[in-house]
Each structure stands twice: as C-alpha cells, then as structure tokens.
Amino acid sequence: MAVITPLTRVDLPWVAEILGRPGLDETLFAAHLAPRHLRLDQAAFILGNHFEDTAYLSYLHVSVEMRRSGLASRLVAAFIEAARSAKLRRVLVSGETGKAPGYIQPGIEIPHESGALELLHGFGFKELAKAYAMSFELKDAPTLSENDKWGVRLATDTDRAALLEAIANSVPGEWEQFFTTALTINESQIIIAIDGELIGGYCHTRGDRFGPIGVLPDFRGGGLGTLLAIAALHEMRARGAKWARFTWSDAENLSFYQRIGFKTERCFQRMELLL
Predict the structure, then answer these.
(1) What is the pLDDT of residue 183?
(2) Element (H, E) at 48
(3) How many helices (H) and strands (E) does the chain have?
(4) Closest CA to 127 of 92, 88, 167
(5) pTM of the shown model
(6) How many domains does the chain have?
(7) Same domain, 12 and 98
C-alpha cells in the first residue's frame, strides 16, 4: 500500500501541471503549498493549511485511473486527523471571503466534482454558502459615466499609505497582504476612486483577472463600486484583454456583478467540518 508523505519542492512540476499552472514559481510553490500537503505517489495529493483555529482544505486531486480506490478517503482522513492533533476547531473547504490560505478554487465544483462532494459528506462535512466564478466579454463594457465627487485613476506609489489604510478599514483577512504585494510588483495594476486625499474604493486587475474590488463602508450603496468596476473593465480592454474573469463571488454579491454584465461560469460548494 502506498504511504502518505508530505509534498516537497520535487513535486513542483507534476503538481503545477495538474493545477494548470505550468509556470508556477518555486518560491510561490513553497509559500502556498506548505505546510499541510500530502501525497500518495503521483496518483493523489491534498493541499491545505492551518491558520489560527482552522484547517483550510484547498484542493484534492486523484488521477482518473485511481478514483474510487480509496486514495481520496485516506488523504482526507489524514488531513482531518492532522487538524484534530493540532487542536483546531474546524476544517473549511476552501475558506471564506478574505481568508482562504493557499486558495486554489472556492470549493467543490458542482456538478462536475460530485464524487468529492459525496466523499466529504461521508466524513460529516456540512454545506455552507455557494461561491461563483464569473466572466465578462470586454467588447461589451458599459459606458464609463462622469462622477462629480470621485476621481478614478491608476494608483501610484504615493498612494500606498492611503490605499492600505482604506483596505484595512474595508475588507477582512488576506486582502491587505494581497494589495501590499500587488503594490510592490506594479501599483498601476490598481485603480482607485479618490476625493482629495481620501480613497473611497479600489479595484485590482492583471491580464484577464478582475478583482478584488472594495469600497469603504461609508461609501457603499451610492454607485461607487459600479463606477470602479466599469473603469477597471475599460482599463483592462485598453491593455488588450478580451475577457475579465474572477473565481470567487459570494451569493450576496452576484446581483452587483450581474447588473454590470458579468455572467456565471462555474459554481462551487463551500463546506465545513466542526472538529
């Protein structure tokens, strides 16, 4: 019987190929695929992390020819046991908005991953809210309207402190680190809505990736999010992108994106196991 062992850097090529990320950098691999990732030869692996009181199960893969052989059950059981040994409170698939360490996809894709859904139900996982991947064809971008209060422009390095303060005051979890990294790489990937020195909202774009997008609580409900989103779509189109895509919208935000013109591509079931 194959032995469950930790994933290592040596596993980078085949794991990256399965994830559809052939250019996955070794440093990124080490950061995102540690420390709770297990493998069974090159037939199956599970990716996850421990953070605070939660184990985050990010991804489960079993090769086609080895499915229904018990490999997935062994990996999930080992992952749950490790979480219990660490005295964690729960296991999440794959996380929650703003907090999903090692995030690959929001949850179990339905209906295509029905076998994984059945497997996790068997371990006692309960269903949480669904998450949605969406896309927008940029040739159909809505007209960008004028706004008397907010100026919308690309961020610069001088906006760093104000932008990070706005993010810290408006969104949970990991987004602050995400935007800090994005500012370090290229601040022009971020569009901001600004009034004097006050930043009311922001949106990140890169290639065909749209978001995250955020608006400070005091300015929500007045159309600022729509203004930012449409400006971001125009910026993406100007840079040559044909589509705008993102992989995670909670159900409560669907109507916002649908009003702009985004269409749902995929649906994911998030899940939780209390330990």
Answers:
(1) 61
(2) strand 44-51
(3) 8, 13
(4) 92
(5) 0.81
(6) 2
(7) yes
